[in-house]
Amino acid sequence: MVAPSKLLPTPVFYGKRPWPGGPSIQQNWLLPDSMIFYIAKNPSSSKVYQKLVQTCKFFFEKNPIIIIPYLYRCKNSTKWCISQNGYNRLIKIDLYTISTKIWITHNLFINKHIENCIATIVQKNFRFEILRLCVYDNDIIFDDLKVLASSAKRVSLRNNSIKYKNGTIVMLDEILRCFSRNIEYFSFRFRNDVSMVNASTMKNILKLQNLENLKCFYLHDCPDTLSVEDLSAFIKKFGNAKVRLDFDSNISEEYKEQLNSLICEIIESGVPNRVIKYDGQDEDKLEIMDSRFVRIDVET
Prior knowledge:
The chain has helices spanning 33-41, 46-55, 58-62, 117-124, 142-148, 172-177, 201-206, 228-237, 253-269, 283-291; strands spanning 7-8, 65-73, 80-83, 90-93, 101-110, 132-136, 139-141, 154-158, 161-163, 185-189, 216-222, 242-247, 274-277. By secondary structure, it is α/β, with parallel strands linked by helices. Among the domains are: 17-63, no CATH class; 172-300. The strands form two sheets. The chain has an eleven-stranded mixed β-sheet. It has a two-stranded parallel ribbon with strand order 7-9. The chain is elongated, with a radius of gyration of 23 Å. The model is unreliable at 1-16 (pLDDT under 50).
């Protein structure tokens, strides 16, 4: 929860409304007006845009955008918090009432269900440069997810319903397929509906060509429909990645025996950063895997 002392008053964003003190003064540009207008509408980067609007308010009037490095959903509220560095000087805003576009440059964190919030962010965002995307307990249309995660290096998705526009559930391998080659960290927690995976899921993931930079791969509450043989192949293929697989409590005894064989193989090989966890497993084996796992400090 954000301390009240760290919250600043909601800022006023004028957008296309008249500026205090009178109307804007006509500018005499050295370049043609058409070129200036194009520059205003198509800034090359968020830093360039900020320099432009600091130079002349014309650029903000023609293309009003709020640059947001970090955007968080405020606890117990439908409002949001902006931060420049992710830690302090938080500003509350209401995305549903602001008239400007937004430009998220680093982190988008949605930790509780808000109806239509994903669609609202997609509609209001000027350009997608989100490096870290965290979405929990929300309904997501797959086309929106593809846009939000188009530049992401770290993606954490927990207990979400991810569907196509026609209501069909998106398979896990298709979710991974939509990420760019920037993806380094992927964490996913399944909901009760696990029809998004089947016996071919891991085999399909092994065929993907966009995961060569993957450093962390975490699956939580995994069902027993994932092929253990293909899980083993995945672990071997991504030898430099940290892999953690936590399984649902309802997996079958037969499946547990297959997982135990894979665990023995991992322990005997001495390979670090591999953890497989399920209810009723040998605690000594789990401790060995945990002792070899180097944790990293990231938001999950």
